[in-house]
Amino acid sequence: MDDATYERRVRDCQRRVANGDADAVVLFPGSNLTYLTGFDDDPGERHLLLFLTTDDCTLVVPELYADQLRAETHLDDLRVWGDDDDPRETVRETVGDLGLRDAGRVLVDERMWARFTRDLRAAMPDATLDLAGEVLGELRLRKDDAELDRLRRVAAATDAVSEAVREADPTGDTERDLARNIERRLREAGCAATSFETIVGSGPNGAHPHHTHDDRRIERGDPVVLDFGGRMDGYPSDQTRTHVWGDPPDGFREVHRVVREAQQAAVEAIEPGVPARAVDRAARDVIANAGYGDRFLHRTGHGVGLDVHEPPYITSENDRQLEKGMVFSVEPGVYLKGRFGVRVEDLVVVTEDGHERLNDSPRDWRV
Amino acid sequence: MDDATYERRVRDCQRRVANGDADAVVLFPGSNLTYLTGFDDDPGERHLLLFLTTDDCTLVVPELYADQLRAETHLDDLRVWGDDDDPRETVRETVGDLGLRDAGRVLVDERMWARFTRDLRAAMPDATLDLAGEVLGELRLRKDDAELDRLRRVAAATDAVSEAVREADPTGDTERDLARNIERRLREAGCAATSFETIVGSGPNGAHPHHTHDDRRIERGDPVVLDFGGRMDGYPSDQTRTHVWGDPPDGFREVHRVVREAQQAAVEAIEPGVPARAVDRAARDVIANAGYGDRFLHRTGHGVGLDVHEPPYITSENDRQLEKGMVFSVEPGVYLKGRFGVRVEDLVVVTEDGHERLNDSPRDWRV
C-alpha cells in the first residue's frame, strides 16, 4: 500500500472520531496500527502508542524503533523515548500537548495490553475508555480493491497447497509431520508465514474443533480435518477440507455430505443486505434437519482481513447486514466425539449482487 | 510439568493475593495462565478468563475449549459459555458468585486485552484494576529446577544450530534465505517453533538493532548479526553472534572486541545480591570507555522464562537485586549507522554464588 492509502485511512479515522463524539483513538502495535500506517510488528513491552485526535496524529515510540518508523511509515510526529526514560512521562506529556488531559471519551485498541491502558487511565483520569473497534472496525469491515487483491492472491496460494497435499498420501505420517509439510509448502508457495497454527485433526482428534496437531499417526481410512492458511503481504488465508485416504468409517459419507450441503447453502445465502445471522441460519438448518444440530459446536464463520479473526462474525445472533467488500469464512462442521470431525471452509467476499468464493480447491473427501 | 507443580503454583499465587491485599487475580491466555495451569494457547477474541481468589480458582471458558481444558489442566471449576451466549453475562455471574462484585482491588493480566478489562470493569465497577505482575512476576522471577532444565535444553539446541550456521558460508544468500535455513535447523534440532522472529542483520542492516531480515544479499566481508532462538517444551532460547565470512570492514575488529569485552564484564558482574543496574553498568562502562557510549542503543538484557522478554530487565535504572534462579540475557551492542552493527548475547542464570551461562557457542567473529 502506498502513503496516500494510509493518509486517506488516517483522515477517515479522524473524521469518524469527530462524528463518534470521541476525543481520540489510541492504538498500539497490531492490525489497527498496521491498517493506518503499514507498521507491522508484534506488541512488545515497550510503550509504542499512536494518538489520533481529530486534527493530530502523534506516535510515542521507543528509540529502538524510531528510525524504522520514520523509514517505513508516513508518520512524522514522533515522540521518542529511550531505555533510560520513563515512557509514562512521555505519555503524560503527549496527552497534555494534544489537549487530552480532560478528555471525556477515548477509544483504545481492543487488544491494548492492560499495562498500557492503565497508563492512559492515569494520564487521562476522567476519560471513559471505550474500544477503538467502533471506529476502526467499521473502517476495516469493507475491504478495498488493494486488500481484495491480496486476499485473492494468498487464497490462491493456499488452494494450490491444498491440492498438492491432497495428492500426496500422508498415511503413516504423524499429524505433526503433515503440519510441517503443509507449512513448508505454504512457504514455497510464497507465503511469509502461516496465518494460524496448522490444524491436522485425524480420526478422533478431528472431533475437537480446535485441536491443532499432535503425534498421532494418520491411518488409512481416517477422516482428516485440514484447516490452514498462509499469510502473504500481510493478509491471511483460511480454508478447511476434510479428506480420507482409503475407505472412510461408517457414517462418515453421510456427515460429509451434510456439511458440504450446509456450507453450500450458507454461501448461497450471501448477498448485500442479508443479515449475517441468515448465513449462519442457512448452514445450521441443513445440519439440524439431518439430526446433527447439537454436533455443530461453533459459529458459521468470522471476518478475515489483516486479522484472521475479525468482524463480521457469522453467528446466530448477528443482525449486521452484509455489505459489498466484506470478507468472511463459511465453515460449518459436525463433530462426533471419539469418532471423527468434518469441516469444510472457504473464504467468501460479498460482491455488488452476491458473492465470490476466494477458495476453490476440491471439497470432496475422496482423494 | 505435573499437576502437583501447577497446584503448588496456584496456592503460592493465592497466598500472594491475600498478602498483597488484593481480592483476586484475573488472567487470560498467555504465559501467566500457562505458568499456573499448563494451558498454552494464543489469546483469542473469545472470553477465556481465570479468576483466582484467595480460596477459589474458576475458569470462564468458551464451549469450544472446554473439553481441552478439562483434559489438559488440573482445573475443575469451569463455567462454560457457548457461541450463542453473551460471555459478559457469564463474567458478571462469576464475579457475583465469587463475591467480587464490590471488590476493591483486582490484579489483571498485564497483557489482557482492553475488550476484556472493559468487561471486568463493568462487572466490578468500584474495583481498582492493577497489574497481576506484582504477584505473578514475583512468582515467575526465580526459575525452579524443572524450568532450568528446559531452559538449558533449548539453549543447547540453539547453540548447536549456531555452530552449524557458522560452518556454512551464507555469502550470496539473502538474509531471508539464511533466516529460513536457521529456522529449519531449529526445528530439526527439536524446537517446536522459534521464540521470536529470526534476526539476520547483514552489513548496514545490522546497525538497526531490531531489523529482522529482508532480501539483501550477504556479501563476503559483511558483518552479520545473527539473533535467534528456538522454543522447546514451552521455553525459549535467545542468543546473538556477529560473524564475518571473509575480511571485515575497517573498524569492525575493534568494535567486536569492545562488545565482547563488555559482554564478558557484564556476565562477570552477575551474582546474588548485585543490583540489575550493576550488570548494565559493567557493559556500558566498557563501551563508553572505548568511545562508543552513544552507539549502545538499548538496555543490556531482559529476563527469559515462559516469555522471551520478562523481568528482570537489565537496565541502568533497575535496583532489583539479583537472586538465585533468575535467568536473563546479557546482550550489549554497538550500532554504526550505515555501516554495521555488533551484538553478542548469552542467557545467564544466577547461581548460589555466581552465574552460569546457558549458551556456549563460539563468540568469535572469525568463521
Short overview:
The structure is a homodimer of 367-residue chains. Chain A is an alpha+beta fold and 367 residues long.
List the defining traits of the structure above:
homodimer, 367 residues, alpha+beta, 10 helices, 36% helix
Characterization of the model:
The structure is a homodimer of 367-residue chains. The first copy, chain A, is α+β, with helices and mostly antiparallel strands and 367 residues long. Chain A has helices at 3-19, 31-37, 63-72, 87-97, 114-123, 133-141, 145-167, 175-188, 252-268, 276-289, and strands spanning 24-27, 49-53, 56-62, 78-81, 105-108, 128-131, 193-194, 199-202, 223-228, 230-232, 235-236, 239-244, 301-303, 310-314, 327-330, 333-336, 340-343, 346-351, 354-357. In chain A, a hairpin with a 2-residue loop joins β18 and β19. In chain A, α4 (87-97) crosses α5 (114-123), α7 (145-167) crosses α8 and α9 (252-268) packs antiparallel against α10. Chain A binds chain B through residues 42-45, 63-65, 67-68, 83-84, 108-115, 117-118, 129-131, 133, 180, 187, 197, 208-211, 297-299, 309, 315-317, and chain B through 42-45, 63-65, 67-68, 83-84, 108-115, 117-118, 129-131, 133, 180, 187, 197, 208-211, 297-299, 309, 315-317.
